[in-house]
Specification:
494 residues; 19 helices; mainly alpha
């Protein structure tokens, strides 16, 4: 869905239309209730922080600005949770039905009896009717499954659809592969549910941190009274509004990060392709010369400083800084290589699953070539090199051995050896080998997605730390005001 600026949702019409996409009817009555709650909360904060009416109004305005995003994200969160449950149940039922019936049409018919109401049932009915009544299509089953795929926008569902199309065309018993795909689905569902629990814990901790911050910052207003009461000072009131406003902003930003689709693939915008090329094309001699040039200015500065101050500490600091500049190319290369290696570990299993599914109808070289259409950015250049080498010598083992060899990933090397065995015809029963490839890939995907989940959770923990920094700022302002008031009283009392 196309993203809109949060400001546009301040218009009731825009917010209503967006919420309707997630199955929520936002009536004027509900809007008035939401705005009434914001006014009540602003009044409560105003009383707690001893704010004057204009500052209470400022908090209310900030709350009104953020409220559409909070409402929207709440409804989106519920929608994404429902879609995950629906997608998970659909994959389980569809695979089971296809294993029983062996055709796409019969699998869809049986699945439609399970999901017998709602807009998803309507999508299933359209897909079934497309197969039954379309006469001018070369591939009605594929087009019918695309109707279901467009409902979810889920790569896993698209992969399952590709598999059943290939299995129906190939014929034979696909039961083993279906069981492995079902196992992959179960592992994925468990990972997502664990991530949902982790996100709930992170959200709870963020809320605790925000509440604790606002409660702690109230203390200076109540611990000291009388002549040391600072609550009426404009700077104290302004800083309180800033504190509450930024706390609201932190909550909205964190909630937006936590509100995500559990089934849609996130767009890779990390520029990992360029990072891969940076590592692949690294020229140590050339980079060393650049580092030496960069080190010239620090050398001159520290030599001059040592001659002027005649201090050994300056000399030691200079040596450390110059050594850093001389080796910064090595440090940068090492960090980039670790980042690319981690991304490969996360993305390679997704690519391998695509190849395993394509192997139902294509040979290894053709499957690798077709996989380029959806290959992760970090693998694109390595796959281009692999395809070029295979075109020169299709039967050689070296291209498979050289693929990402510099990253020394045993899972990658093992999978490439299996692909070579399949390409050379030395793998025996191709169906069993594809099943073994899928089974091995299940374990790799489980490991890779756990790494990806760890990265997501680690990135969210910064929102738990931000409130403590905010509290420090507010307390510093209040302590400074207390000191000023105390000194003024001391002066007048003398």
């Amino acid at each position: 869905m196309k993203k809109k600026s949060g400001i546009k949702y301040l218009r009731y019409r825009n917010l209503t239309q967006e919420l309707a996409k997630y199955g929520y009817e936002y009536t004027p009555k509900k809007a008035l209730f939401a705005y009434g709650m914001i006014v009540l909360v602003a009044a409560i904060f105003g009383l707690l922080y001893k704010l004057e009416l204009p500052y209470i109004a400022a908090i209310g305005i900030i709350g009104l600005v953020f409220s559409p995003m909070v409402i929207l994200q709440t409804m989106k969160g519920r929608y994404h949770t429902t879609m995950f449950s629906l997608a998970n149940n659909y994959m389980e039922q569809f695979l089971y039905s296809f294993k029983r019936n062996g055709t796409v049409l019969n699998a869809l018919l049986e699945t439609a009896t399970i999901f017998d109401e709602g807009i998803f049932h309507e999508a299933l009915e359209r897909a079934i009717e497309h197969i039954q009544y379309t006469t001018d299509s070369e591939d009605p089953e594929r087009e019918a499954l695309d109707i279901v795929g467009e409902f979810f926008h889920c790569e896993r569902i698209d992969a399952i659809h590709s598999f059943v199309i290939g299995a129906q065309r190939r014929g034979g018993d696909a039961g083993g592969s279906i069981l492995l795909l079902a196992k992959n689905r179960a592992m994925w569902a468990e990972r997502v549910m664990n991530l949902q629990k982790e996100f709930q814990i992170v959200k709870r901790n963020i809320m605790i941190a925000l509440v604790a911050t606002m409660l702690i910052c109230i203390l200076p207003l109540y611990l000291l009274g009388g002549d040391l009461d600072i609550s009426s000072i404009p700077l104290c009131q302004i800083s309180a509004v800033v504190l509450i406003g930024i706390c609201m902003l932190i909550y909205v930003k964190a909630d937006k990060k936590l509100c995500r689709s559990w089934i849609e693939k996130e767009v890779d915008s990390t520029g990992m392709g360029k990072k891969y090329l940076q590592v692949r094309d690294y020229d140590e001699a050339k980079e060393a010369k650049s580092s030496q040039k960069m080190a010239i200015i620090p050398v001159i500065l520290f030599i001059g400083a040592f001659i002027y101050f005649k201090n050994i500490a300056v000399l030691v600091a200079g040596v450390v800084v110059v050594l850093f500049f001389l080796n910064q190319h090595k440090i940068g290369h090492s960090l980039a290589m670790k980042k690319v290696a981690r991304e490969i570990e996360k993305q390679f299993p997704n690519w391998l699953m695509e190849v395993a599914l394509l192997l139902q109808t294509d040979n290894v070289q053709m499957a690798i070539r077709k996989s380029m259409d959806s290959a992760p950015e970090v693998l694109v250049y390595a796959l281009e090199d692999l395809i070029d080498q295979l075109e020169e010598d299709p039967n050689a083992i070296e291209p498979y051995h050289r693929f990402l060899k510099e990253y020394r990933n045993p899972d990658v090397q093992s999978a490439m050896k299996m692909l070579y065995a399949l390409s050379s015809g030395n793998a025996g029963d191709v169906t069993k080998q594809v099943e073994e490839l899928i089974d091995r890939n299940n374990a790799m995907m489980d490991k890779a997605e756990k790494l990806e989940q760890e990265d997501k959770i680690a990135g969210m923990k910064v929102y738990i730390l931000l409130p403590s920094l905010l509290a420090s700022f507010k307390l510093m302002v209040d302590m400074a005001l207390l000191l000023v008031v105390f000194l003024q009283n001391l002066t007048f009392g003398m």
